[in-house]
Amino acid sequence: MTEAALHAALVGLVLALAPLTFLTLLLVPAPYGRHSRPGWGPLMDTTLSWIVMESPSVFAYLLFHFRGARAWDAVPLVFLCLWLAHYLHRAFVYPLAVRSRGGRTPVAIVAMGFSFNLVNSYINATWITVLGPAYPLGWMASPQFLAGAFLFVAGFWINREADRRLRALREEAAGGYGVPRGWLFERVSCPNYLGEILEWCGWALLTWSPAGLAFAVYTVANLAPRALAHHRWYRSQFPDYPRRRKALLPLALLAAGLALAPSFAGAEDAAAAIAEGDSLFARRAEGTRGLVADPAMVDQAIAAYRRAVAQAPTDLEALGRLLHALHFRGAYCGASREVQMPIFEEGRKLGQSAVDRLEKQVGGRPGPERLAALRAVPGAAAVLYWTTGHWGEWALVRGKWAAAREGVAGKVRDLAQTVADLDPDLDEGGAFRVLGRLHDQAPKIPLITGWVSKRKGIEYLRRSLALGPESRATWLFLGEAILDHEAANKAEALSLLRRCAESPPRPDHAVEDAHYADLARATLRTQR
Ligand code: NDP
User: Fold this and answer.
1) CA 129-325-306 angle, 5° bins
2) How far is CA 382 from its chain centroid?
3) Residue 259: burial class (beta carbons within 10 Å; 0-12, 13-18, 19+)
4) What is the pLDDT of residue 404?
5) What pTM did the predictor assign?
6) Measuring CA to CA, which residue among 481, 479, 500 is closest to residue 491?
7) Which residue, of 223, 338, 347, 374, has the fewest CB within 10 Å?
8) 34 Cβ closer than 6 Å to some ligand 1 atom
9) With 80 as the cut, is the pLDDT of residue 326 above it?
């Protein structure tokens, strides 16, 4: 079983358990606190029970987070800080502060809580640093992150403030129960649960992840019936209990939640489809014969990315991945010209219309402001970059001269320059590689591509090499450009081409590296 399949199964399990938990707890309130009753097996000290139950959310989460390749990326670290802010408090501060009435909690409840927290830590941390799409820095300016962070922080504060007020009430009530008054308690019986629910809905939004959604849904399933049970209990114990108070949710909040739910569900489907596409695309070298990749795996990845784009048409993370996969399908799977043409045609159209929308969005702003606005859109750089890839391949299939006369070279130059400004490291210095190859290969046609410069081409390729010193494509393109235009450096060119021809392909670029090695061998043969 792959990690992606295990993760999907556990997310599915949490989602499936949610309605069962909800219905069960409606009928049988969890037997701790005021709902304690005999018949639930061995008991343990309540303070210790909280520490045991919640500690996986600190230790296991840290373990799962830091085993991931993206553990040290800025956005996952911000997520980690938010998570720990909640769980260090819940596991170690809250239990020691709580004034339980010498209470004892069934070991069975502790075991269930412990297991849930272990699974929940796994699915959330693994999505963020291992399986989910990478979160670029610009994610923190996205509406999902901003709205989610607001809900998380508001929920965190409400939860802690409510628990603090309950502790004060416990003192006032001489160790027993009293009727909470003032603040949010005038609206609802359990603002601590309301805060907790807001926090995890915020988390689901700000991580935009299936794991976050599963946790939010489960939190509602767990706490809403308990809030109802508390509310009924208050009414039965205190005849003067305020009649207008709700159990958990002021009605306005419930209505807002119901209104937002459908669009949120759609977006989560998109995230799941992206994850599925990523795990299929990572296996694109499977079944490769000679230099030709088997299209089966990449076709499935393309289908998953198409679903993601259909679910979330404005999500550029999904579109960038679709463009990359389509590019691979057209360039590395042995497609004939007839098969290639519609693929690159689709790629350039999809990419260009997204680019046009983006430019409209930032339209008219001066250089640095335009770049800052583009940088704030997650996935924008990748869409621009893969659009250059489709334009370039489309031009090769159509014929360099015809394409240059139609202004394609100028378009690719402008797109690649924007990517170089936005994210020069993307695809191992890919933007400078595109610029270099463009200057090297584009025909110089007066008034149309008069700006083409072979010297500049070599300069760009050298910059690309500095950013991606292991890129086989850069070794090949730079080697060929030097051979053609810098005879004095022929030895350097031959050494680059030999490295490209002889270095073993890297596992995550197996097909692409083998392809460039073959081209380098062909160029070297012409030098004998
Ligand atoms: P409760 O509201 O039942 O109790 C919180 C504390 O306040 C307990 O010590 C309780 O004492 C005391 N207390 C409650 N009401 C009164 C009152 N009217 N007068 C005096 N004292 C009172 O919360 P839980 O114990 O169920 O949960 C504690 C925290 O854990 C909450 O912040 C909750 O959000 C969180 N939690 C989160 C879950 C999740 O799914 N994410 C699941 C469960 C809890 P006593 O124990 O004696 O009743």
Assistant:
1) 85
2) 14
3) exposed
4) 72
5) 0.60
6) 479
7) 338
8) yes
9) yes
* CA proximity to 317, closest of 210, 208, 433, 204: 208
The reply to whether ligand 1 has any atom less than 6 angstroms from the CB of 223 is yes
Per-residue pLDDT tens digits for 174-186: 888 999 999 999 9
Pocket flag, ligand 1, residue 222 (CB < 6 Å): yes
Higher pLDDT, 224 or 4: 224
- Do residues 111 and 40 lie in contact, with contact meaning Cβ atoms separated by under 8 Å? no
Q: What percent of the chain lies above the pLDDT cut of 70? A: 95
Which one is predicted more confidently, 298 or 142? 298
How many angstroms is it from 206 CA to the middle of ligand 1? 26
CA distances from 380 to 25, 274, 398, 435 (A): 45, 16, 27, 18
Token duo for residue 20: 């069962």
Tokens of 41: 């097996």
Q: How far apart are CA 169 and CA 177, in angstroms?
A: 8
Residue 268 has pLDDT above 70, yes or no: no
Note the pLDDT of residue 429: 97
SS3 assignment, position 189: coil
Q: Is 313 exposed, middle or buried (0-12, 13-18, 19+ CB in 10 A)?
A: exposed
Tell me which of 122 and 280 has the higher pLDDT: 122
In this prediction, residue 263 carries a pLDDT of 58
Residue nearest to atom 21 of ligand 1 (CA): 170
Tell me: the pLDDT tens digits for 176-221? 899 999 999 999 999 999 999 999 999 999 998 899 999 999 999 9
Between the CA of 58 and the centroid of ligand 1 the distance, in Å, is: 20
Residue 106 dihedral angles phi and psi, to the nearest 5°: -60, 135
H helical segments located in 376-425 = 380-398, 400-405, 408-422
Joined together, the tokens standing for residue 14 give: 């949490």
pLDDT, position 265: 58
| Residue 100 Cα to ligand 1 middle (Å) | 9
d(CA 98, CA 324): 53
Q: Is the CB of 117 within 6 Å of ligand 1?
A: no
pLDDT score at 397: 85
78-86 contacts, C-beta under 8 A, 24 or more apart: 78/140, 79/128, 79/206, 79/207, 82/149, 82/152, 82/203, 82/206, 83/57, 83/124, 83/203, 84/58, 85/156, 86/156, 86/199
